[in-house]
Amino acid sequence: QVRVVESGGGLVQAGGSLRLSCVASGSIVSVVAMGWYRQVPGKQRDLVASITSTGRTTYAESVKGRFTISRDNAANAAYLQMNSVKPDDTAKYYCKASVLTPRLEEYWGQGTQVTISS
């Protein structure tokens, strides 16, 4: 069993900062990659940023230069530092962990709400 838990969401004014955390736990041999996605009601879930075990990162164009993803391999954790946030960043943010159990499997967290006020 693998569990993914996000934390750090909340209400922030536009221009402010927020840091999201994600921890994967359970029967994990290793974490291959972790990613942050976001979704607003009625729309698809979109990739925000991802990071591999070797540190390779990918960002959505809309967050480049404002958001930074990082990870702690020893803790099976990933973080999303959100700076210069905008009302358009309002969404529920989900963490996905791609792990070896030893099979390659993907697990999602329950999500954390981020609301940016103008």
Description:
With 118 residues, the chain is mainly β. It contains no helices and eleven strands. The strands form two sheets. Strands 2, 4, 5, 6, 9, 10 and 11 form a seven-stranded mixed beta sheet that branches. It has a four-stranded antiparallel beta sheet with strand order 1-3-8-7, with no helix packed on it. Strand 9 (91-100) and strand 10 form a beta hairpin. The termini are far apart.
How is the secondary structure organized here?
Layout: E1 2-7, E2 10-13, E3 18-26, E4 30-39, E5 46-52, E6 57-59, E7 67-72, E8 77-82, E9 91-100, E10 104-108, E11 112-117
Parallel strand pairs: 2-11
Antiparallel strand pairs: 1-3, 3-8, 4-5, 4-9, 5-6, 7-8, 9-10, 9-11
Envelope shape: globular
H/I helix tally? 0
Order of helices and strands: EEEEEEEEEEE
What does the largest sheet look like? 7 strands, mixed
Mean pLDDT, to the nearest integer, reads 97
Task: Sum this structure up briefly.
The chain has strands at residues 2-7, 10-13, 18-26, 30-39, 46-52, 57-59, 67-72, 77-82, 91-100, 104-108, 112-117.
Search tags:
118 residues; seven-stranded mixed sheet; four-stranded antiparallel sheet
